[in-house]
Amino acid sequence: GGVSMGKRKSADAAADGAKGGAGAKPAGRPGRRRKDDIELEEEGAKGPELVLSVPGALKQWLVDDWRAITHEGRLHVVPSAPTVRQLVEDYTEKLKRATSGQRLLDATSVANGVLDWFDLACEKQLLYDPERKQYTQHCAKGGASPCDVYGGEHLLRLFVKLPAIMGAVEREDVTEELVKGAATHCTEMLEFIAKNQTKYLKGEYEGGKRVKQISAAEKLADALQGGSRSGGRRR
Q1: How many structural domains does the chain have?
Q2: Where does residue 98 rank: exposed (0-12), middle (13-18), buried (19+ CB within 10 A)?
Q3: What GO cellular component term, any one, is given (predicted)?
Q4: Contact present, 111 and 5 (Cβ < 8 Å)
Q5: What is the largest CA-CA distance in the chain?
Q6: I need a labelling partner for 17 at 20 to 30 A (CA). Which of 95, 108, 209, 227 fits?
Q7: Is 6 a member of any domain?
């Protein structure tokens, strides 16, 4: 059988019940990571557990984004360009060139499921409090789907939350093999984003400000100086 993201009996309840909202401090704070790939697991999941491996570079994006919004009062420029939908469509086009048969069908099914889960989880799980006014303007009142408003930075938040969200959903006939297959395809999508950061993770905020990527040398200097450089990470 093919790989899917699981049947949803009460999707809204799952989004409500998953542990922690976007307002919580992200996992993998600087100085706590000991390896490039961070295993993300949630306790208390029902049935087979979804385990994703997120590249360390993407975790750093999440931390920088959290700091920009919750500590520096910035907001992303929305609608984003490209959007989550455009990112997923680019990924599926890449799949069509690189694979075929059942594997292509499975990977495409998971990619489409990611779009569904993003729209489902966005309002309740993927936004920091300062971002809710934008959601109301563009989605609640404007009628746009979240995947047509937000971009890669918000999609990364979904992948962090997805194990908990899916763990809170009552799923029928979902085997460990199917969950592992979904995890594989999600991880491949994360790798696609990591390889194309300049296109999908622009870090653009209102006022034209953007995240400044920190080189390895700057990170080392920051660590040696006890973090004294951290205040100047963005321009």
Answers
A1: 1
A2: exposed
A3: nucleus
A4: no
A5: 54
A6: 108
A7: no
Q: What residues contact residue 102 under an 8 Å CB cut-off, 6+ apart?
A: 2
CATH of residue 192: 1.10.274.30
Q: Are 157 and 22 in contact (CB under 8 A)?
A: yes
d(CA 83, CA 72): 24
pLDDT value, residue 168: 72
| Residues in Cβ contact with 99 at an 8 Å cutoff, skipping those fewer than 6 apart | 107
Q: What is the pLDDT of residue 155?
A: 97
| pLDDT at position 53 | 87
Mean per-residue pLDDT of the chain? 77
Q: How far apart are CA 182 and CA 42, in angstroms?
A: 16
CA 98 – CA 142 distance, rounded (Å)? 37
The answer to whether position 39 is within a domain reads yes
Coil, strand, or helix at residue 204? strand
| % of the chain surpassing 70 pLDDT | 65
Q: Tell me the sheet residues that pair with 38.
A: 54
In DSSP terms, 39 is beta-bridged to 53
The answer to whether 26 and 135 are in contact (CB under 8 A) is: no
Query: pLDDT of 120-174, one tens digit each?
Result: 999 999 999 999 999 999 999 999 999 999 999 999 999 999 888 877 766 666 6
* Strands, E assignment, 83-152: none
For residue 2, being part of any structural domain is answered with no
Domain for residue 3, yes or no? Answer: no
Q: Phi/psi at 4 (nearest 5 deg)?
A: -130, 175
